[in-house]
């Protein structure tokens, strides 16, 4: 069976939820050491397609269709280009590939259309034959992770995610307070943590982790704005925890005072000369970029607290619990634990619960947790690589095929971002999988534990759980 003639998506209007045990090199692109934060994950489900209530049926590889999310910060062209569909001018911020109830992916199941391979049908029949589609969760249950393509033209909000204990206690507190799920004051939508990993497909700019106080203070002095210098003063007296005081003072300013401070910082950034130190020039560039999309937002000042990094294609950025971060611009593959728990801290019109944000924040300076991939296997036909993260919810690998074969054990979701590959392989009992051809922009669901073998030329991301059945 072949897929890829067209890679349609279905739209969802919900708000965004918003990353094999191997070693990976941690790159410290800020000052301080690379993050070694760990978190204890909830039981993650095991193996490919492992989710709650997964039926014990023969393992199959099926064409998977994700749902597009049209948030205002998204690129109008990047995801349509990947999918091979013409852009319509509307931003397409994310493509969700998983079983998240807000935007569940669907499979094309030949068994539901009389055994006829979906790609052999005309596009008209494929679009109209509703019986050909079924929810991926019907076959694999609820996956413990969500895979995304993320394409940011504008900066996302500054945000923090809770650890598992914080999520559980916070959810119970919101429940006890009687806050409805749709209430903007609701902080916790579920009981899970939300660690994330993003791998850059293009140069990808992001803010992650509290920058070394000396570097932040130097930037404030270089910009020369008195209000900013005063706001950042706690970093000098309390290098370990001063970021908490800085954020509280910024986020509790009267609205007009916050607008005035943001405007003053932008004016100061405009005066930075081309021969200024590189870190100051980069900070001024960040301020101008944020001001263009978030004018008057005091988060422009708060963003200067964070390490500012640009990932090269192939580098990853891990966002553990309690780390303040924001994606600024670029296209990447993101994988995260299935959760909607986000505490925002600026660059957003949405509700900010300052007390709760600062309660779960880790204010200690740290380097940005950037990861380079580790090669797991290599041959003349290609290589398999991985970005190691210290959570049990997901594992993300990439097969780079230069002819193949490249074997991947127990993936749940496969996503081709370049070229064309054929998927073959066998399940845990040794039964052969029905072949499937995957083209750029297309994805597949593996319904149970299996070793898939990829041949052809292309790049395929493989998302799964670390522990197979």
Task: Write up this protein.
This protein is of the alpha+beta class and 469 residues long. The chain folds into three domains: 1-203 and 312-372, Jelly Rolls (Sandwich); 212-305, no CATH class; 373-464, Jelly Rolls, CATH 2.60.120. Helices cover 22% and strands 30% of the residues. The chain has helices spanning 78-83, 123-128, 137-140, 164-176, 213-223, 226-231, 234-237, 242-251, 255-270, 278-293, 299-302, 354-360; strands at residues 10-12, 25-28, 61-65, 67-69, 94-97, 106-108, 133-135, 145-152, 159-160, 196-200, 204-210, 306-311, 316-319, 325-337, 343-344, 369-372, 374-379, 382-386, 395-409, 413-427, 436-439, 443-446, 450-464. The strands form three sheets. Strands 1, 2, 4, 5, 8, 10, 11, 12, 13, 14 and 16 form an eleven-stranded mixed β-sheet that branches. Strands 3, 6, 7, 17, 18, 19, 20, 21, 22 and 23 form a ten-stranded antiparallel β-sheet that branches. A hairpin with an 8-residue loop joins strand 20 (413-427) and strand 21 (436-439). Helix 5 (213-223) crosses helix 10 (278-293) and helix 9 (255-270) crosses helix 10 (278-293). The two termini are 27 Å apart. Residues 1-55 and 115-131 have low confidence and may be disordered.
Q: Concise description?
A:
This protein is α+β, with helices and mostly antiparallel strands and 469 residues long. 22% of the residues lie in helices and 30% in strands. It is built from twelve helices and 23 strands.
